[in-house]
Amino acid sequence: MNSKNNKFPIFIFGQTRRTGTNFLQSVLSQHSDCSPHLFPENNFLAVSNLLKSYSEFSWRMDFADKYPFDKYKVELMKNLGAGLLDFIHSNSKTERPILKSTTLVGLENFFDLFPQGKYLILIRDGRCTVESLVRTFSWEGKRPKWIFPDAKPMTYDDAIRKWAKSARQVIQLKENLHRNNKQVEFIKYEDLVLNAKITVKRILKFCDLDWRNYDFDKLAELPIIGSSQFKSNDPWKVTHALGPDFKPLERDVDWDSRLKKKFEKMAGKESRELGYF
Question: What is the pLDDT of residue 179?
């Protein structure tokens, strides 16, 4: 492995889509050692079960009584992870490339691939996430049916189920974390918005990044990327993320009692377990 691999990449996993991974990536990119990877949003972990299967079925099991295959499986996964790290660093501009994903699929394989690694999980209030999902993906039903026969608009029921499922994954992950509890940091999107400087310092400490090399003055000038609030010719970049005109914590302000009751019935328990009331 080359010398760059001494600095572990920064992995961001969004609880689901529309949780603010673009913003968190922008926030971390203000550190002099960090920049988005060449493939900033990827499925490296989402398809890692293929690597898991490869490590498990690469051996002739009729020799199992002669060789410690369990040990070899562990070693093979670690070496596959090391190869992936080499690939990541060979396509990065800085010591600490940032990679993000908007799914938790495959996360159970993270420490098999990267035993010494760390990652961030970004969570967001379910009501705001649901509203953002519906606003953003309601157009999917307009895709041409002859190309996308299963395409349909994102409904509130769909979005609530999606958020609740991802919330249960986060809750289960928290319960399962024992040995690796210092290698995972849970970040609330709301903390990034309301207490940006304090939250950023906490993230920098977790990522072993020197806060003195971070440009805090640029925090207030960061652009909004991928927001459902703005509709323009370039909806993926509108300024400013921490400005007074951008209100990401008020997505559900127009919800009626029917919709509030629906969310409570379908995802209220999960919402409270993640600290949202």
Answer: 62
Q: What's the confidence (pLDDT) of residue 71?
A: 86
Burial class of residue 6, CB neighbours in 10 A (0-12, 13-18, 19+): exposed
User: Each residue of 102-139: b (16+ CB within 10 Å) or e?
Assistant: bbbbbbbbbbbbbeebbbbbbbbbbbbbbbbbbbbbbe
**What pLDDT shows up at residue 136?**
83
Distance CA 68, CA 86 (A): 27
CATH architecture of 3-125+183-255: 3-Layer(aba) Sandwich (3.40)
Asked whether 29 and 36 are in contact (CB, 8 A), the reply is: yes
Number of residues that this document lists for the chain: 277
Distance CA 173, CA 186 (A): 11
Residue 264 tokens, joined: 């409570």
pLDDT of residue 253: 81
Residue 181 in 3-state DSSP? helix
Residue whose pair of structure tokens reads 């072993």 in the numeric block: 208
Q: Considering only CA atoms, which of 107, 112, 108 is closest in space to residue 76?
A: 112
Can you give the pTM of this predicted structure?
A: 0.84
Residue 189 CA, distance from chain mean position: 11
**pLDDT score recorded for residue 141:** 56
CA–CA dist 207, 275 (Å, integer):
24
User: 146-165: buried (b, 16+ CB within 10 Å) or exposed (e) per residue?
Assistant: eeeeeeeebebeebbebbbe
DSSP summary character for residue 230: -
Residue-level pLDDT at 150: 66
CB atoms within 10 A of CB 204: 19
pLDDT on residue 232: 44
pLDDT beneath 50, residues of the chain: 1-5, 228-241
